[in-house]
Amino acid sequence: MKVSLLLQKQVSCPTCKTVITCTGSPGEIVKVTCPSCGLLGKVSFEPTFDALTKIVEIQHLTKTFGKFTAVDDLDLTIYKGEIYGLLGPNGSGKTTIIRMLCDLLKPTSGSTKIFGHTLPCTSNKKHIGYMPQDTAIYLDNTVHENLAFFGSIYGMTREQLEAKEQEMLKFVNLQDWRSSLVSTLSGGMKHRLSLACALIHEPSLVFLDEPTVGVDPELRAAFWGYFGSMTQKGITVIITTHYMDEADHCSRVGLLRQGRLIADGRPSDLKKRTGTTSLEGAFLFLAGRKKP
Amino acid sequence: MRLRRTLAFSRRALLQFRHDRRTLAFVLIMPLLMILIFGYTFGGDVKNVSVEIVNQDAGIQEGSSPLLPQGLHLGEMVIKNLDEQALSLHENTNVTNARQTVHDGHAWAAVIFPANFTQEFLSSISSQQGTIPAKIEIYLDASNPTISAEVIKAVTQSIQATLKEITADLNKTQVEIPITIDPSYEYGGSETRFIDYFAPGVISFAIMMVTTMITIILFVNERRNGTLQRLLVSPASESEIVVGYALAFAVIGMCQSIVVLVAAILLFNITIVGDILLALIVILLLAFGHQGLGILLSAGAKNEMQAVQFIPLIIFPSILLAGLFWPIESIPSYLQPLSYIIPLRYGIDAERSIMLRGWGIGEIWVDILVLILFALLTLSASVVLLKKKN
């Protein structure tokens, strides 16, 4: 079976300078049309050894709560530099999977390897970033105090923190709020800070649990742009969402329904396979609810 | 366990207190208010009990008795010797009217000296037998036992003092009070007030309350906001979390104790005869133990509302069974063993022994040992609790 792996690359259109995000497999040359000026071009993806490094290997992972099966016999491998999207409606088991991968929940059966180490494993922890569904930052501390705290529990030194904090503040556009109490920030700002707290220690594997819920469209676009740039540094991102339209940004998605992985592949492949134009259509088709 | 990470937890928690002024005020002002309110209102001594005095005692005139040639008005003397701090006297001439005042609730007691009071007193000490002793009638509203006891105590003390004066006059005769009480003080003294006894208790109680409550609320929030999940995913270990918070509470506990101690010394001039450092160590142990208890209890509450419901569960056993206000000896004997399972009991006992008796580690090692065990038990149990996964 062919490894379905996608890389993302941002190129700017030579005529109108529009930034275009293109996806393709390692070694592949893809045709790209500029969305604003219609110019046709080709983008090549370098074959990378890294790209085939297994970061997460999940085997027969199952989690039951009493009689309820939240995750049912999940098999999945995620490679370095991917943005893997776990996609499904509420209650389909996305968060349960993330929590098991983060070692917050013990699986009922099955096993997971991260960076080649079987969970539970403490040596992995400093390379992992986690943004829970809840905002998960300290409301009675300032923006700076939150970033400094999360950085220092990952063992960052004062000097490392200072440099990285500036970068993160710029990325989430909170430079002017550094000394503000988090409780005085708007919902979107808290969300941005929460993301910054998950990334401050430069993790190489990031779990983002519904990072875009309640985030305005502009910010969502900015988040996805950043996730794309992270993968170019070789960072692997695993993200859950129930916004089907967003999942097009992922290099690969897994469609989940009632705890089962019903499909796994590139968004374009899934759409092609089901003969639909959107991932939502693909999901509904695969879930057996609707003919294409 | 890494020191740097552990201190990151303490630092963050302390910064949170700095920003959250209200909580900080609660932490520092609550014990201060307690010591102020109790110091001023709960002095332990009953004061200004309104009492009707009816003195009908005719006394004996000058020269009418060979024993006391200068005459005697015993009723007057007893009234003069009544404790004016404790009783607020109101002279009345009419017995019925005085009783009515008590009946109407305007006075707690009516103290009535009959007309032949001095006469009967003299005849009972001069003749050997068969005479009726002199009698003071006290008409009491005993619905408040503390107050009625205070009235009787005041009258009894006054009689004793009066008799002492008279026996000085009767020196030539053989009348003597056969027994005298001669108290000498091993610890404390006649000057020891209720506030001296209460201050060590209130410090311990305040530490217990604040540490337990704040820990429950902090950890309920950690769970609910998802920050705890983030910490558990991070390389920080559960013991670093617990110890980090413990250090923060140690700092807070120290600030609290110092505020209360300084206030108690400045405002009430309380006695501290023992080692302050040892007293502060006991405070730390109390804080550690109750922080662990707070983390454990936080697992039983889903939100702050539910956390608040723990307050009476913690307060009442501590107030009633730990000997905060009343000595443990005043608890019914079948309930007294319960006080052994209240950790605060050992804290209060240790603090009192240090501050009032000046005892050192040699005398209070049992208290210290129990508090150390309590802290170790709850803190390690909370590490286990945090490690537990579903």
Q: What report would you give on this structure?
A:
The complex is a heterodimer of chains A (292) and B (390). Chain A has 2 domains: 7-44, no CATH class; 53-286, Rossmann fold. In chain A, 27% of the residues lie in helices and 29% in strands. Chain A contains 7 helices and 14 strands. In chain A, the strands form 4 sheets. In chain A, strands 10-11-12-7-13-14 form a 6-stranded mixed sheet, with helices on both faces. In chain A, strands 6-5-8-9 form a 4-stranded antiparallel sheet, with helices on one face. A two-stranded antiparallel ribbon of chain A has the order 1-2. The longest helix of chain A is centred in the C-terminal third of the chain and has 16 residues, at 217-232. The radius of gyration of chain A is 19 Å and the shape is globular. The relative contact order of chain A is 0.15. Chain B has 390 residues and is mainly α. A 4-stranded mixed sheet of chain B has the order 2-1-3-4, sandwiched between helices. The longest helix of chain B has 32 residues, at 194-225. Chain B is elongated, with a radius of gyration of 29 Å. Chain B starts with a helix and ends with a helix. The interface between A and B is medium-sized, with 33 and 25 residues.
Q: Separation of termini of chain B?
A: 24 Å
Shape of chain A: globular
| Relative helix content of chain B | 55-70%
Low-confidence stretches of chain B: none
Cα(first) to Cα(last) distance of chain A is 26 Å
Task: Provide the descriptors you would attach to this structure in a database record.
heterodimer, A: 292 residues, Rossmann fold, 2 domains, four-stranded antiparallel β-sheet, 14 strands, B: 390 residues, abc type-2 transporter like fold, four-stranded mixed β-sheet
